[in-house]
Amino acid sequence: MVTVVSASACLAGHGEDDAFLIDATGVVEPPADGGGICIMALHKIWRRVMRMLERMHTSRGGEENF
Fold first, then answer.
1. Domain presence at residue 14
2. Dmax of the chain from CA atoms?
3. Strand order in the sheet with 19-22
4. Taking all residues of the chain, what is their mean pLDDT, rounded to a whole number?
5. Which residues, at least 6 apart from 20, have a Cβ–Cβ distance to it below 8 Å?
6. Residue pLDDT, tens place only, 34-58
7. What domain range includes position 11?
C-alpha cells in the first residue's frame, strides 16, 4: 500500500491520506471509489521501487543497512 502524505495542485485530485494498492504482481490498483491515478503518483511509486531494487542489488551480504 502506498499512501499520499502530502499533495499540492494535483490535476487528478489526489489529496493527503489517499492510498493506492500494489498487488503481488506489481500492478497498481486504482482506488475503490473509481477515481484514477495520475502519472506523477505512478512515477513516484515506480521511482522508489527502482531505487529499492537497486539498493538490494548493490548491498553485499548484509553489510549495508537496508
1. yes
2. 44
3. 2-3, 19-22, 28-29
4. 77
5. 1, 2, 3, 28, 29, 30, 31, 37, 41, 45
6. 777 777 777 887 888 888 888 888 8
7. 2-58
Place of cell 492510498: 19
- SS (HEC) of the chain: CEECCCCCCCCCCCCCCCEEEECCCCCEECCCCCCCCCHHHHHHHHHHHHHHHHHHHHCCCCCCCC
Look at residue 19 and tell me if it is in a domain.
Answer: yes
Domains of the chain: total:
1
pLDDT of residue 50: 87
| Residue 34 backbone class (left: φ over 0; alpha: ψ -120 to 50; beta: rest) | left
49 lies in some domain: yes
